[in-house]
Amino acid sequence: MEDVGRWAASARRRARLADVATGAPLVLVAALGTARLLSWMAGAIVGLGLALGLAWLAMHRAQRFGRAWLVRALDAARGDLEDSSDLLFAEDAKLGPLQRLQRARVGARLAAAPVPDLGPAWPTRPIVAAWILAAIALMALLLWPAPRPGVALAPAQEGGPARPGVPRLVGQRLTVVPPAYTGLPPRPLDLLDARVPQGSRLRWELQFSPEPEAARIVAPGGGDLPLRRAGDRWTGEKAADRSFLYRVTAAGMDARAAPPLHRIDVVADQPPRIRVVAPSRTLSMVTRGQRSWALRFDVSDDYGVAPVARLRLVLAQGEGENVAFRERMLTLTGSGPASRRSFATQIDLAAAGFSEAGDLVAQLIVADNRAPQPQIVRGASLILRRPPAALAESGVEASVRRVMPAYFRSQRQIIIDAEALIRERPRLAADRFLSRSDGIGADQRLLRLRYGQFMGEETGGGATNAMPTNDEEDAAAKPAAPGDEHAGEAPAPPAAFGAAGDVTAEYGHTHDESEAATLLDPGTRATLRQALDAMWQSELALRQGDPKQALVPAYRALRFIKQVQQATRIFLARTGTQLPPIDEGRRLTGKRDGIERPALPPLAPGLTPDAAPVASWQALAGGGDARLGALSQWLAGRGGRIRDPLAIAAAVDAVRRDPGCGACRQRLRGLLWSVLVRPAPGVQRRDAGDAMARRYAEALR
Amino acid sequence: MTAERGVALILVLAVVLAWGRLGWWHARSGVRARWWRVAALAGAQPVCAALLFLALFPPPAARGDAGLVVATEGAPRIVVLRPGEQLVALPEAGPIAGAERAPDLATALRRHGEASRLRIVGGGLAARDREVAADVALHYEPGPEPRGLVGLYPPAPVVPGAAFTVGARVAGGAAARVDLLDPAGRVVDTARPAADGSVLLGGTARTPGAALFTLRVRGTGLEEDAGVPVVTEAPPATRLLILAGAPGPEVKFLRRWATDAGIVTGLRIAAGGGVRLGEASLDPGTLARTDVAIFDMRAWSALSSAERQAVAAAVRGGMGAVLRVDGAVTGSVRADWRALSLDLAGGEAVAPVALAPAAPGGAALEARRGPGIAESSMASAGERGELPALTRRIVVAGNATPLVRDGRGAALALWRQSGRGRAGAWLVEDSFALVTAGHGDRYGELWSALLSTVARPVDRRTARLPSLPRAGERLTACAVTGRDAVVDPAGRTTALLVDTGGCAGIWPERAGWYRLTGAGGLDQLFYVQPRQALTRLRAEERRRATMALAGGEASRTIGRAGVVAKTSSWPWIALWLAAAALLWWFERSRLGRRST
């Protein structure tokens, strides 16, 4: 019956679809997994293979829906078939009459009523479960982080011959994980030598063949690191705090043929660098009407500048000794990328309290982002100056002038007093007039003495720090002890702050000409000398009670003093090169008895340079023993004073490994050149030449 | 020639004998011959003899107008030949179309005896062929000068610590930069070539031994690295005598430097009033043991006349004498030193000395100085640009050779030969300031330069060697004996075979340091450059040498090159045989006999 075929076929189709629907997610997951693990091509091949297998399986499994199944299913589904549905499929010839009758009945019943669905139920749950699970697996596969690059290790480059049974490095990878603050990504390297930021973590992944019992990283300078085994790989981790050399060794390696050294160079974090963009000069003056002060700094760093910097503001206001300081900290927020930040601010002068004459000093304090301790750098001090009103002309001369009038003005005062006294003379008694004149004369004397100091005069209490306020200086002089020509000098006053100019007076005897030991140039000195002479005459007249007579020299003194004030140059006289001519007649005429001819003590021999590098350098020229032991010892002791000790240590190691390697020896010899001390250049005498050369030289006129 | 002459003599004798026999026979036989028969017989004798001579010594081939073109290294693949020219390629030449290969020029000339003209094509003749070509008229059209390093002049052996100068010439290198690198690879000096391509670079030596510096030329198309051998020898023992009119810093630091440099120093300083520090005496015996003496003006003036004469005699005998000019040259001092061949005048005025920095940069200066000994008394840590201002006396010395110059070219020292010795003058008043300013190394260099020039010559054996020998090329060592030997880099010793001129050939097979050792303290290191090194320099050398050969007289012919081509002797033998046979027949015949 064709219906029978139809029923079975539909059942098979459904069974196949159900199988495929259940198996497809597995195939997908398997294919994608392979693709992620190996490659897309492998994934495609695996997927195709599995799909074919699944198809075959589904076809195969669908075969169970045959006649036997149909009979069973019909019998089970329809009770009215009386378990006789197998008759429907039986061959006509083989049936008995009763069986034929029964078949006709059953056939009629079957045709009369619709046959229920005979096929297997859809395995909904497994299908859904499979798809859900597959979806999860697929998501996981797709979202799984990309496998670390270089799953396969780089081939080792240790060189050396391979010997059976001796472990040998065959794969290597060095992963550098810079400190987090640098923001640098981890860096896998195929080489075992590296330049790494300070504080990086180094992770080695190594592979040996054949598998050794144990392996370690040996640093000749100390700090060995045993490696852990994980599968066929050996791993180890270490923090790189300083540069070092190391080699990878494994148990069972030949101790004499050690593998080559590798080198880790540590690059230290640089402190931030501050560049002042505005103002352009360190010292700037307040301009008229200036209300604010613009500051701008550029800060750069190798990894990053902290986003917040501090600005230290020091306000120094006041004059003379009455200067008040006030310090304040501002916080500035930078802009721009982390490695190059820009800090800018405007300081309101009024708000900062900078209203009087004085200085406002600003200094930027900035840190980088190094961990654990940031490096803090202070920038240059920027000064904003508001000059005092009187010092508008600024400069050294102005300061000098400002100090001097305090003394020079009194000459004018003496003149004014003298003129006033002359005007009052008719009204005054003679003795009163004389005493007043004498008083003015005393003032004139003090003034003269004070100017005498500028001339280096020692008479009359010159060269003291006392102010010309009283007449007691002469009396203060100690009685001079005979035999000590310096005893008459005034005792040195206690050192006062800022009196740096008096060092000579304080610590030494000035034996040279008094006039040469001043701060004044010869012209000024002559003028001052004339002023002193005039003062002297003025004083003389005043003391004698003749102020009228005194006025002329007093005015002259004032004029000279005015000239001195105009003199701008102050310098220290040079002594030494221009000595007075030697009077040969008087030289060495004294008694010389008892003076021996002293033998000159021999000079200490020059320092000899260290012998070890010299010996090695010379030995390396030939093929002999290079005396590496002494050199290594020397290197260990001197390592800190050599620019690149690691390079020499590595070269020493290379020669030690292979004493016959000419290139290694030459390399070490070249490196040793940089540590050879240069001796004092001696004398290379020329060749005497042969007899003919000698005769030629002798015949030269 | 002697063989030819001997044969000719024998033949002349034979002719005379034959004539004698003819006459005697003629007289005895009684047969009356006609005169023409006698004349023919007599005349045929020398003809036969001459033909025999020619058969034995055939005359040189007649020279045609044939020319020989010799292709050398760098010759173009296709050489354009003029009519009558033949092309020969030497082994250095690359593949040349249609050329006959010849192992060397002498072979080529022997093969082509007919050629009368020689034309060289390509880069020029190798050293091997130049000897042969020296006697040949040749024509050479040189190509342009090769660009790059074409001259290299390594320093002569130096003493430890000394500064040395390397010369080089870079052709076509106005934009080139030339660096000198020490064996550690650090740049010690940098310069740009002058207009003529010459460049001078300075470095410093260290301990005794052989060091290979590198001269690096940089510039487009000029890149080349050349090894510069620097041999440092142990310094010869030197005895110095310092005489000073007063103690002073100059004497102090001079003594310090001399002691550091291992110079034995005698000292005599006048302290005034007849008091002396140090007891060096100036008798002839002491002076004969002194290699160099340094006087200042006051010390010289204070010498007795006997002492001055002793010094003058010592200088003529080889000692060096240096006068430190620290004041005006007085008449008597001038006369004394004029007697020592050094004519000094002036000295009243002073001028500042502007020393040029020793190195082009801070790093180079550091590499030049090397690491210091921490506690050294001759400090050398001054900044490169912070050289102290020194003072020199302005001295007029017409006949002297300037020795050390400052940055502006002013001479700081002078010297002149005086007999076997030398007299020198040091014009800087205050060179000690270099030490106190942290330039002790410079101070030592200056004094080392002066005293090395002036000091007594030292007797030692030195062989003369070419400056840039190359592996695979013969080099000639002169002033050697048969007991000397050369040790190659692998340590193999080869005895020398010396020719009559006192020279020996050495064929270095590999590059590296060779040592020439022998009796009399001969111990000389020399460096053999690798085969591929200095290609431009070699090309320029070939070019110049060939140009020099081509500049010779045009009248020279190939025939004088000692390789004479001769014609075949067979025709002469045949002629002689025919003549002899004819003569024999004629003598036998009855022609011209008078019947009796």
UniProtKB/TrEMBL annotation, chain A:
<feature type="transmembrane region" description="Helical">
    <location>
        <begin position="40"/>
        <end position="59"/>
    </location>
</feature>
<keyword id="KW-1133">Transmembrane helix</keyword>
<keyword id="KW-0472">Membrane</keyword>
<keyword id="KW-0812">Transmembrane</keyword>
<feature type="region of interest" description="Disordered">
    <location>
        <begin position="459"/>
        <end position="499"/>
    </location>
</feature>
<protein>
    <recommendedName>
        <fullName>DUF4175 domain-containing protein</fullName>
    </recommendedName>
</protein>
<feature type="transmembrane region" description="Helical">
    <location>
        <begin position="127"/>
        <end position="146"/>
    </location>
</feature>
TrEMBL record, chain B:
<keyword id="KW-0812">Transmembrane</keyword>
<keyword id="KW-0472">Membrane</keyword>
<feature type="transmembrane region" description="Helical">
    <location>
        <begin position="36"/>
        <end position="57"/>
    </location>
</feature>
<keyword id="KW-1133">Transmembrane helix</keyword>
<feature type="transmembrane region" description="Helical">
    <location>
        <begin position="569"/>
        <end position="586"/>
    </location>
</feature>
<feature type="transmembrane region" description="Helical">
    <location>
        <begin position="6"/>
        <end position="24"/>
    </location>
</feature>
<protein>
    <recommendedName>
        <fullName>Carboxypeptidase regulatory-like domain-containing protein</fullName>
    </recommendedName>
</protein>
